[in-house]
Amino acid sequence: MRKETIRFVNKDKSLFFPVLRERIDQYFKEKALLKQGDQLLVWKGIFMLGLLLVPYGLILSNQFSPGVDLCLAILMGLGTAGVGMSVMHDANHGSFSSIPWVNTFFSSCLYLLGGNVLNWKVQHNTLHHTYTNIHDVDEDITGKFLLRLSQGDRRWKIHRYQHIYAFMLYGLMTFSFFVKDFRSAYKYNHSGNQKLVKPFTRRNILTLITSKLLYVLFIAVLPLAVTDLTFGQWLLGFAIMHFTAGLVLSTIFQLAHVVEGACQPEPDESGCVYNTWAIHQMYTTANFSCPALLSWYIGGLDFQVEHHLFPNISHIHYRALSPIVQQTAEEYGIPYNNKPSFQQALSSHINMLKTLGQ
C-alpha cells in the first residue's frame, strides 16, 4: 500500500463532527469569544520565553559558580519545553493569535529550541494530525530508536525492557533536531509522497542551514566565548538543558497517543480507513486530568482530544470545550478517552510500552 493513497471513508455517514462543530461555533458565538488566543496568552508567551532566555542571560553574565549555572541550565530546559508546548505549538497551528504576524513571530521561537518550523509543520500539522497513530505515516510513533511505539514496527528482544529505559531515550528528543531536520528534509524531497508533503525548496534548505548555524552560535559559541566555562562544563549544561526539555516534551506527547484505549488503526489494502477523520481522532487520542498549574504550563495538552479535533482553536479554550465534546461523543456512541489523573495516564503509557515490547 502506498502511503499517499490513505483516505478516510465515512462508511456510516456519521453526523458526529458536523453536530459537534455547530455546537462549538455556537459556544464561541454566545460567549462572544475569538477562537484564537488573547492578550493573556501573549503575556504567557513572553513569560515562557523569559524562562528560557533569562537563565541564559544570567549564565552569560559569568557571575555564578558552575553549580548555579547547572541549575540555570535546568530552568532553560523547562523554558524550552514551555515555549514548545505553550507558545510555538499554538502559533504553528495559527491559533496563538488572530493576527497573522504574531503567529509567525511566536512560531519562529522553534528556532530558539534548535528545531525547524517547516519540518515541524509537515511532521506535526500535516502527518501527525491527519494520520494520527497510523504506522509509517505518523512519525511520532514510527521508527523510533530502540523503541517500539507502533504495532507495525518490528519487535526486537530489547523491546521487552523498553518500559525501563524509554524515559532515558525521551530525554534525547530535542537533541535529535540537529540530525532529524536534515534527514526529514532529504526524505520529503526524495520519498515520492508529494501527495502528502511538499518538497523543501532551496529557500527552505537555506533557512534550515542558516537557523542551525545561528543556534550553534546562540547555544555554544557565545557561552564559551564570554564566560569562564570549560568545554566540559558547557557540554554538561547543554546536555542537562536538552535532556530536561526532551523528557518533559516527549512524556506529555506520549500520554496522548501511546496509552491504553488509544487505537492504532491499519488501513486496508486500498488505503482506506473506515472512519471519518474526526472519529479517527477520537479513537486514537486520549486526555488526562492534571492540576490547573500543570495544564497551564503544558499548553493545555492534557486536552489532546479537543486539540486534535480543533487544532485551529487556542488551547486556552479547551477546558471549556471538553464537556461539549464529551457529551456529543456519548450521544453518538463514540469513546472519549480520558485518564483520571496524570499518574494514571503515566501508568497507562508504561503498560502500553510493556504490551508493545512483549
State the gist of this model.
One of its GO terms (cellular component) is membrane. It holds the Pfam family FA_desaturase. This protein has 358 residues and is an all-alpha fold.
Provide an overview of this structure.
This protein has 358 residues and is mainly alpha-helical. The radius of gyration is 21 Å and the shape is globular. The strands form 2 sheets. A two-stranded parallel sheet has the order 1-2. It has a two-stranded parallel ribbon with strand order 3-4. The chain is built from 14 helices and 4 strands. The chain has one domain (3-357). The mean pLDDT is 93. Helices cover 59% and strands 2% of the residues. This is Acyl-CoA desaturase. Residues 72-337 form the Fatty acid desaturase domain. Pfam families: FA_desaturase.
List keywords for this structure.
358 residues; mainly alpha; two-stranded parallel ribbon; 14 helices; 4 strands; transmembrane; oxidoreductase activity, acting on paired donors, with oxidation of a pair of donors resulting in the reduction of molecular oxygen to two molecules of water; FA_desaturase_dom
